[in-house]
# Entry
Amino acid sequence: MSAIVQNLLGPGWPWVRLLLYLAGIGAFVGANAAYLVLAERKIAGRIQRRPGPNEAGFGGWMQPFADVGKLFAKQMMIPPGTDRLLYCLAPLMVMAPPLICLTVIPYGENLVARNVDVGLLLVFSFGSINVMALMLAGWASRNKFAIISSARVVSQNVAYEIPMLLVVITLLMATGTLNLNEIVGQQGGWFWNWNFFRVWVNPLMPVTFVIFFICMLAETNRAPFDMAEAESELVAGAFTEYGGMGFGVFFMAEYANIVVGCSIATVLFFGGWQSPFVVLSGPVFGPLWFMVKLYALVFTVMWVRWTFPRTQFYNLLNLSWKILIPISLFTLLLTGAMMKLPLLLHHLF
Amino acid sequence: MTTIAAFKEVCTGFMSLLTGMRITLGQFFKPIITVQYPRQTLKMPARFRGHIRLVLDPETGKSRCTACKLCERACPSTCIAVDGAKLEGQKTKSVTDYRLNFTNCSLCGACVEACPFDAIEFSKEYNVVAFTRDAFDKMDLVQLLAARREAWTQNRPPEAPPAQLAPTPAPPPAAAPSPAGQPQTPA
# Structure
């Protein structure tokens, strides 16, 4: 299919491909942001034994349109005393990294916008910009709640980058590549080849995933680690002074970041577009499996949010520095030892 | 030793988190228990205390009240004012005006207890809304009873017409009896 189009367009194909992926990723992010908000509210409702939003059309299915319509109808205000440039730049900066990260995620065997060799590195380097955007939003707002939120965002993200990267390094030692599509390719066949179940590489692989997941929650500022927003104590944290679609963009970015985080978790631990059984794979079922795994993880993120109350700030930092970092260091050492000990024994005897 | 204790704490803590998640997932799959209020309403329990109202005697379609004013005297908040008159061809007085000052009423029920004729009861109305203050501090229970009597006339079997209510032969078909819990505006 793509080969035919490629022949038809000739030298114009790379540009058309670029535009197609741009539109596709834009639409994917937009649809996710709109409908994950609804899904979150529906899931929250179900967990609390109530139906969730159910008035706006077809049992609540038009709710995102109502929300966006309301946000667009609001006036964009720049409060006096704010740093105008940073204040306007922050929503753009918070939205850009997840969009860039999604270009290297392999949705299917051949369905990846840019099959970069350092895809994982790219995701983590751009993922870190998210923190800076939130910090700028809080800093530029000239609001005490926003400033407190900025300080929290930075210390939280600094604390959780470390175990996150340690865990990823552990995984990289097992995979030996930063190319996300190759990492998925290594996990083919039955589901026990997924990195999550590869206990012969490292018996603590499931623990590694749990640490990754906790760090992902913290990095995306999701409950129970939503110190940055903390609506009961900080109004809306860094977004307090934003109104209308400026506020909406922060929410879109939050959900886009969740999608990116869950995509990375899917790719690294659950075999990306690989079928859990050997059957039902291929260019059609691959993206379907990817989506199933992705949304199962997204559901877990929401499920966690509506299960646990917000942690206290020092507990949050204690969790990272006293528990997650030692454990992830230990898994790193263990993986190294398990990879090199056979070689050493072979060398000695 | 402390390392082992810390390790144990981490493990038990994690297991407790999983227990919490299991409970919320269990709730997720259970049916919804909230009532979608304006579309669904709950039936008020038998002992629910709305504002008092005059009992509509199902035999006669009128109030049983004889304007004996025992309720007026029993009321600790003096929020009841009853007026009665002796109608033609009747041995007892009947109520002509029954005013309830609902703004002072504490719903204690002393009036209901005191009534020797079971002529007043608690209504099941909780949607009491009006645009004027008079609707609450001069609640006209006789008029409310008249409104209910219309519904009663339409629903009652036609072969037993009471003598007093003869001049209503053709009730309008559109006016249906108000269902329980429907918002009501006292006149």
